Amino acid sequence: MAEIKRLTAPSILLVEDNPLHVRLVTSMLSEVWPGFEDLYQARRLDRALEHLRDDKPDCVLLDLVLPDADGLEAVNVLLAANPEVPIVVLSSHDDQEMALRAVSEGAQDYLVKGSVDAWELARAIKFAIYRHKSRIDGGSGDVVAFPTARVTAQSVAPTAGLTPAGQAIVDVGGVLRHGTAEIASLFGRPLYELIGAAVEDLVDPDDIGGWRIAMSGCRQEPARIHTVDLRLHNGNGAEVPTSVTLRAMCGADGEVDAVLLACYLVSEGVAEVPGGYIAMSDWNG
Q1: In the predicted structure, residue 43 carries a pLDDT above the cut 50
Q2: Is 42 or 189 the better-scoring residue by pLDDT?
Q3: Which residue has the higher pLDDT, 161 or 176?
């Protein structure tokens, strides 16, 4: 079972040369984590590299236009300097092609300045830390959690004691927002093709009703772990029978704003692969 590592708030390296944007980000982080102070600002890429050599922040917030770097060069340089630190791009341009390229180069997310509020920024940071940690540790390492947030599900899932074949996060509308590399393998498609897709479009049509019931149950009873059997549509045309658990992810206001999915391969009605189950707590929307 993974250990849950609790932090008071993440440490952030903000690589940004615009003072107005620095003040905006600082204000947003302080709104989510009152008294937030663990932020280091680097106005240039070379200063960011110096900081990464001396320290290991939990996350890097990166502007792509810097005095000594322009575009995705900064992503590649920072990842080469310290591949263990996740990067979230903060850009002034709503450019989907650039966003896809940034993620394909190794960034965990691409946000447009002025288009996200404080809680959306905090959510992106925590998703990035969790996904990057899972990728580095092969899904079996510590799960970073922050006390301003929580996952409310406490019931024992039918699949407890088994290792999920893949994990993903969907929003309340059932759209896949983040997933592990194993999720991509289950679907037989690149992860970037899955992100932004509705789960209903990725499963057998006959299973959509059960999926909707499970999602509705998550919203109505967030303290429970909900389970549904789904046949995933693999990229090669095959169906992959899975048992999926759904855990509600609630914000500080107690409202469900995302759902953590764990997929277990099924053979003749029995979930396969013994091992440890990754649990999460203390999440914030």
Answers
A1: yes
A2: 42
A3: 176
Strand partners, 4: 143
Q: Name the E strands within the chain.
A: 4-6, 12-15, 39-42, 59-62, 65-66, 69-70, 87-91, 109-112, 143-145, 150-151, 166-171, 176-179, 225-233, 239-250, 256-267, 270-271
Answer for the pair 142, 227: CB distance below 8 angstroms, yes or no. no
CATH T-level fold of 149-271: Beta-Lactamase (3.30.450)
- What pLDDT, on the 0 to 100 scale, is given for residue 137? 55
What is the reported pLDDT for 256?
82
Taking the whole predicted model, whether its pTM rises above 0.85 is answered as no
Q: CA-CA distance, 64 to 112, in Å (whole number)?
A: 11
Listed by start position, the domains of the chain span: 4-143, 149-271
With beta carbons less than 8 A apart as the criterion, state whether 55 and 27 touch.
Answer: no
Does pLDDT of 83 surpass 80?
yes
Q: Mean pLDDT for the chain?
A: 78
Lookup result for tokens 């290991």? 56
Q: Which of 82, 32, 33, 37 is nearest to 55 (CA)?
A: 82
73-81 helix and 96-105 helix, angle to the nearest 10 degrees: 20
CATH code that applies to domain 4-143: 3.40.50.2300
Would you say the CATH fold of 149-271 matches that of 4-143? no
Gyration radius (Cα) of the chain, Å:
19
User: Higher model confidence: residue 222 or residue 285?
Assistant: 222
Pairing relationship of beta strands 143-145 and 4-6 according to DSSP bridges: parallel
